[in-house]
Design a protein that fits this description.
Elements lengths: L10 E4 L3 H13 L7 E4 L2 H10 L4 E5 L7 H8 L7 E6 L4 H9 L4 E4 L4 H33 L8 H14 L15 H5 L1
Parallel strand pairs: 1-2, 1-3, 3-4, 4-5
Length: 191
């Protein structure tokens, strides 16, 4: 269970400082997160592996880690459709670094030491955005499925002739201009 209603929020935390990992874990557990919904990674390569193996709502990346820092990790996951909302942490962030992180698609950029309430609020907001994106993708997929099964029912002889013509033309590679009055089914025919 998480503080996000019935749906748990899965969080991945990547930081090479053990005390920072423990601090974030304790803050989230104290706020109501189940330990099973938290994944702690001691570095970028481990976090990348965790992202390849699981799905997370929110990822918290330390900006400065050896081997694979937060920005490199963000670049590695790129436009992955299952990419979580990413929050960066830094003890010495600059405006330039924060701008780069945001251009890569970060949800937010927090400075260390992290304020407990701000961290929780940021994670909850990021999880809401992630949930909205997932819902939008589900609705778009359902709309595509529904559109593929569109059928027009008519008893009008003129419309039946038009539908016969549509069936013949649909099998070709020809471009077609569909014209008609408003509300006559042009959009359905175009599909």
């Amino acid at each position: 269970m998480s503080p996000f209603g019935d749906r748990p929020i899965s969080v991945l935390v990547a930081d090479d400082e053990e005390d920072q990992l423990a601090l974030i874990k304790n803050v989230l557990v104290d706020a109501g997160w189940d330990r099973d919904d938290l994944t702690l990674s001691p570095g970028g390569p481990q976090a990348l592996q965790a992202l390849r193996e699981g799905v997370y709502d929110v990822a918290i990346f330390d900006l400065s880690m050896p081997e694979l820092d937060g920005l490199e990790l963000m670049e590695a996951i790129g436009e992955d459709p299952h990419r979580p909302q990413v929050v960066f942490l830094s003890g010495y962030g600059t405006v330039e670094t924060a701008t780069r992180a945001m251009k890569l698609g970060a949800f937010d950029f927090l400075e260390k030491p992290v304020d407990r309430d701000r961290l929780i609020t940021t994670i909850l907001k990021a999880a809401r955005v992630q949930a909205m994106i997932a819902r939008s993708e589900r609705l778009e997929a359902a709309a595509r499925r529904d559109a593929a099964g569109v059928s027009i029912v008519t008893q009008d002889a003129g419309m039946q002739r038009a539908l016969d013509l549509v069936e013949r033309v649909a099998a070709s590679d020809a471009s077609v201009l569909v014209q008609g009055e408003s509300g006559t089914g042009k959009e359905l025919i175009a599909r």
